[in-house]
Design brief:
The complex is a heterodimer. By secondary structure, chain A is an alpha/beta fold. Chain A is built from 15 helices and eight strands. The longest helix of chain A has 17 residues. Classes of the chains: A alpha/beta, B alpha+beta. At the A-B interface, helix 1, helix 3, helix 4, helix 5 and helix 6 of A face helix 6, helix 9, helix 10, helix 11 and helix 12 of B.
């Protein structure tokens, strides 16, 4: 399947390990990635809040360049990109007047117009069912030796379900299906669908850490060896801010956090240079040692 | 013989529920099982009425209109805030699932399913929930407000103040003083009202410490609202109006503005500069130790040379172009609502109105769960 690949800001910068593992994994999952080069940030909800009309145009521009590749699917690897692009896409696809105005503006600055022919899908959705899932099972030949993995969905891949709609936002199943296909054991806990606090981690750190505590604490209590998330913002919060959570609560968590593509990558036998675990703040070594034992 | 003489008994079903009983005076909590015959058309509220009437008169819950407009019967079913009068029980009974009923979250429980709405009303009062027309004397002629002007707040005006959004607000769980989705949606209902003359005063007040920038964008409020208010979108509209009016002193607003600057200059988010641009240089220096640790793991990319998107001049030109077209502020969000409203209309016939039902089957990896028989929550 040929898809336009939009990696977003984090995979391009602070979460390069997400980009490298996604690219290494894609051919084994039957995905041909056409990387979008001349695109920008989706605005991450911030431009939607600060300059909403600009947000719509920036996302229309990304969608237009995706459409120009000839692919009918724009693949994302971030919850926030997924929601922002899908929201803009619905606004444009279902309102011809709005689309005409935005397309005219795009053309005025030299961008191809957007006709509404692209669907935005997260990598998770492409491999949780159907052909992608069958390919995943073949790719994950090394398995995870029953490793106990806590799925953490985060918010903007589930809610609002009107705009996301892949699965029941209160009882999602896709990460669990993937963990099990890779030979791991999915650990269940209530906060797997809640917020990691990242959007306000700079402006309201204390409130954000209060949110971050729930999933990490519950995953630990459920006996997880590691957590996996489809969102690099959740990853940054869970991994990089975990030390601040340890400092503020006086507790030791040391919970390794994996990107979705890394979890599958481990089961598929990707190289260290593709998985790049050294870029994590919380060491992943205990997980890797368990697998080698 | 007239048709009216024929009496048909409605078909009934056996409904099973678990209800969290709670006594605030003694602190006693108990999950109790109930079973009752109910008509097939019964909603959750009908079933509770039957239980109270025939099984256990001590069960406490609030109700009034029974038709989704008074906002009294907010409670949780399987951990999800709902209006009891809106939830049909037949599909749940057919699936074999036994739902767990409990009181709403983020509010103190008085008894069983009744919560103390005091903190909720205090926050509503704090946003000045009345129209301030800016004059004392009534004008000689009535003021006509156009449909276009009312469209700006048509969603916010639908709120019935049931508290379902507040129940699940993730930020409020962590900061109980957060004004929260219901109060802020009410605030937008007046900021966006063409007849109100205190939008600046309101925006300044909503920009205070526990105001709009506390929202963590978890979207639980949009998901739970039984009336389609979409409180998160209302909060975004307040943010957009604040920034349009130059009310951008909060770190949340500075954070949002930095994304706009990044998109215009390099295209991608300039992550490394985000902390000083949001929190100020002094705060950023205090965080040096934390930043250095992140730097060692490549989490703080060097700002030089900047990571610049190809053809970034297009995104700069787009910014200048849209700024001339005057759809800033809340209008930029309102303009998208027409398209989004059509998503519901396009839903396939016979669909249950979206996800969120509890009658889901056990999961078979690699296959979509069917909407059949489900397991216990």
């Amino acid at each position: 399947m040929r898809v336009a690949y939009y990696k977003g800001c984090l995979a391009a910068l602070s979460a390069k390990e997400l980009d490298s593992s996604t690219k290494a994994l894609a051919p084994r999952l039957g995905l041909e990635l056409v990387e979008l080069e001349s695109v920008t940030c989706c605005g991450a909800g911030d431009i939607h809040e600060a300059e909403p009309d600009y947000y719509l145009h920036l996302n229309a521009r990304i969608l237009a360049y995706a459409e120009a590749t000839g692919a009918d699917t724009l693949m994302t690897v971030c919850n926030v990109c997924t929601l922002n692009l899908r929201q803009a896409n619905f606004q444009l696809q279902k309102d011809e007047d709005l689309r005409a105005r935005v397309s005219a503006n795009l053309e005025a600055v030299g961008v191809p117009p957007y006709s509404g022919g692209v669907e935005v899908k997260h990598l998770l959705w492409l491999i949780a069912e159907g052909e992608g899932y069958e390919k995943l099972k073949q790719a994950a030949h090394k398995g995870l030796k029953g490793l106990r993995i806590a799925p953490f969905y985060g918010c903007q891949i589930l809610r609002p379900s009107k705009l996301l709609g892949f699965e029941d936002p209160d009882r999602p199943w896709s990460l669990e299906a993937i963990i099990e296909a890779c030979g791991g054991e999915a650990v269940d806990y209530p906060a797997k669908i809640k917020c990691c606090g990242f959007p306000i981690i700079q402006a309201r750190e204390e409130t954000a850490l209060g949110e971050l505590l729930q999933p990490i604490e519950q995953a630990m209590e459920a006996g997880a060896d590691a957590m996996v998330t489809p969102c690099p913002l959740c990853h940054l919060s869970l991994d990089a801010w975990q030390q601040k959570l340890e400092a503020s609560t006086g507790r030791a968590f040391q919970m390794p956090i994996l990107h979705l593509s890394q979890l599958i990558g481990v089961a598929a036998g990707l190289e260290d240079s593709e998985l790049k675990f050294k870029r994590h703040v919380v060491p992943v070594t205990p997980v890797l040692e368990k697998l080698e034992a | 013989m007239t048709e009216a003489a024929v009496h048909i008994e409605p078909a009934t079903m056996l409904v099973r529920l678990k209800i969290w009983r709670f006594n605030a005076q003694t602190g006693e909590k108990e999950l109790r099982d109930y079973e009752i015959d109910a008509p097939e058309w019964a909603c959750l509220l009908d079933v509770l009425d039957l239980i109270k009437d025939k099984v256990d008169g001590t069960l406490a819950y609030r109700k009034s209109c029974r038709m989704m407009i008074c906002g009294s019967c907010g409670m949780r079913m399987d951990g999800k805030a709902v209006l009891a009068c809106k939830e049909r029980m037949k599909p749940i009974v057919d699936s074999g699932h036994v739902p767990v009923i409990s009181a709403m979250g983020n509010l103190p429980i008085v008894k069983d399913l009744v919560v103390d709405m005091g903190p909720f009303w205090n926050k509503i009062k704090a946003v000045k929930p009345w129209l301030d027309p800016g004059y004392d004397e009534v004008a000689e002629r009535e003021r006509v407000v156009s449909q276009q002007q009312m469209n700006v707040i048509h969603k916010e005006a639908l709120c019935i103040m049931c508290g379902c959004c507040v129940s699940e607000c993730n930020s409020m769980e962590s900061d109980p003083d957060f004004l929260g989705p219901a109060a802020l949606a009410k605030g937008m209902r007046f900021v966006g009202d063409a007849r109100d003359h205190d939008d600046i005063g309101r925006l300044n007040s909503y920009n205070e410490e526990h105001g709009i920038w506390d929202c963590t964008r978890c979207y639980f409020c949009n998901e739970r609202c039984p009336k389609g208010v979409d409180p998160r979108d209302a909060i975004a509209k307040l943010g957009a109006e604040s920034i349009k009016q130059g009310i951008d002193h909060d770190m949340g607003a500075k954070h949002a503005n930095w994304f706009v600057t990044s998109a215009k200059t390099t295209g991608w988010l300039r992550e490394t500069e985000l902390v000083p641009k949001t929190q100020g240089v002094v705060s950023a220096i205090k965080q040096t130790k934390f930043a250095l640790k992140l730097f060692r793991h490549g989490k703080v990319p060097l700002p030089f040379p900047p990571h610049v998107a190809e053809e970034v001049q297009e995104s700069r030109a787009l910014f200048d172009l849209v700024k001339q077209q005057g759809r800033d502020g809340a209008l930029g969000i309102v303009q998208g609502e027409r398209g989004l409203a059509r998503i519901d209309q396009d839903a396939p016939e016979g669909s249950s109105g979206g996800w969120g039902s509890r009658d889901q089957a056990d999961i078979t990896p690699g296959k979509r769960p069917t909407r059949g028989k489900g397991g216990e929550a």
